[in-house]
Amino acid sequence: MRTYSTFLIVSLILFLTVNSTAQRSDVVTPTSPDTARFNIVPNEYENIPGTGSFTGPLATTPRTYQMLIHESQLTNLVGKELRGIYWRIPASATANWPAAEVVYTAYDIYLSGSVDPSARSFTFVNNIVGTQKQVRSGGLIIPVDSYPYGHSPNGWGPEISFNSAWLYTGGHLLIELRTSGFTGTSRSNDAVTTSTAGYLTQFSACWASGYTATSGAQGNFAILQIKGDDIIPVELTSFKSAVAGNSVKLTWTTATETNNKGFEIERASLNNFKSVGFVEGNATSTVPQSYSFADENLSAGKYNYRIKQIDFDGTFKYFNLGEVVEVGAPDNFSLSQNYPNPFNPNTVISWQLPVKSYVTLRVYDVLGKEVALLVNEEQEAGIYKVDFSSSNLAGGTYFYRLQAGQFVQTKKMVILK
Question: Which of 23, 169, 225, 268 is deepest in the core (most CB within 10 A)?
Answer without folding.
Answer: 225
